[in-house]
Amino acid sequence: MQVYDRVFSLQDVSFRFPDDASNTLNDISFSISRGERVVISGPSGCGKSTLLYLLNRLYPLNCDGITSGAIHLFGKNAEHYAPGEINHRVATVFQDPDSQFCMPTVEEELAFTLENLHVPFAEMDPRIAEVLQLTGLSHLRQSVIQSLSGGMKQRVATACALIMEPEVLLLDEPISHLDPYMADQFIEWLDELQKSFNVTIVAVEHRLDLWGSFFNRELVMDSEGNMVADSAFAIQQPVLFPEWISAAGPETALTANEISVRMKDEELLLPMSFIAKRGEVVVIAGPNGSGKSTLMKALCGIYAISGGTVKSDGAGYVPQSPEYLFLEKTVAAELAFSGVSSANELEELMERLRLKEIRDAHPFSVSHGQKRRIAIGAMLADKRPVLLMDEPTSGQDTAALLELFELITERAREGVTIFIITHDMEFAASVADSVLLIKDGHLTGKFKAAAVWNDETLLAEHHLLPPKGVQRYAESFA
Fold this sequence. Notes:
Layout: E1 6-16, E2 25-33, E3 37-41, H1 48-55, E4 66-73, E5 76-77, E6 90-93, H2 106-116, H3 121-134, H4 150-162, E7 168-172, H5 180-197, E8 200-204, E9 217-221, E10 227-232, E11 252-263, E12 266-277, E13 281-285, H6 292-300, E14 307-312, E15 315-318, H7 331-337, H8 343-352, H9 368-382, E16 386-390, H10 398-413, E17 417-421, H11 425-431, E18 434-439, E19 442-448, H12 449-453, H13 456-461, H14 470-477
Parallel strand pairs: 3-8, 3-9, 6-7, 7-8, 13-17, 13-18, 15-16, 16-17
Antiparallel strand pairs: 1-2, 1-4, 4-5, 9-10, 11-12, 11-14, 18-19
Helix pairs in contact: 2-3, 2-4, 7-9
């Protein structure tokens, strides 16, 4: 049996944010050795990301958190490291990549990272070229980061971490914004990287089924911030949802007629046309950077269309970054602001979205998965006839996904038209009546869901993988 050097060692570690009455983490103990591949799993909001940030010293220093117990990094007490000292050995890719970018372009962001490491100027260009080639991003070297899709931003953030040549790579839900093909490619690439450099990998993840046998160990947390298991990783089965058939009515809820989007002399969306009926659930799918989020923003008026027309009954939008929606200081107030008609309705909505335990928390202070559920709740409370959701499944545990499934199907039966961008093919197959496939700003077409799940060529051309249990799903739409 191979003997590893310990890179992390925690003994009876508890953590509490200064304004909280109770701990986020309770008496956590484990060690991680050099070269291991470890995944941290558990319900949304259980403290997984908080634990990750204790490993890179972001916490407690950056939040005035209160910590007890012993944390050792590379055999040294974590408190004995100077601020920032550990970060060249432990690199982190955050759940929201926008939170870690400082410069406008990909090349400048990579150069900025090297400058912080005091790398000589003459060595920068070859290191930048090498990491871009390694991550398949060479064609984006001069690109403006904020013009990229969420998935591409995640890959750029990973490149910025790798250019530091770290000993440990911390990943906070790294594939949540990647299409299925790119997620599969990312995991294969990460596998080769780990074998070549023996880098230690610690990841927070919900969609464990996509990782196959990548991890060799799993740390499981419960909803109260306790570690309840530390065991060998077992290959996971995907979440399977109940079957349903939409009762979509014949009335049209949204019409897009030859709409296009152009920004700064760049054609983001070429002219496309489609309609959606009342009560129809439409999944928008395609490769990262294909224009899915651009289309959704055009449908709700955030992006001005440069041609064509959009007619709808009135649309509500849940963005990839849910913080953009928040206006109030508590979760309960945020949902109430959005139009909940009674106290009973508010309580029911918070119960179903598993938000009651954080009802008095500030919407900006909770986990990423909880922020998404707050934003979804706000739009559901607003009772718009058309609902647009960009990656609503990201950061959600199994219980939250099942509840989201129920809420979507209920609203669809009530006549609400729902557009969903998601890379979770199992979830897409469970809810979709139809699928809009987009590639390179072109609309390939609007298809019945069953036709997509059974067309291997169509799936491959759009960087999608067939959902597991595809036959069962296809039959439910027949």
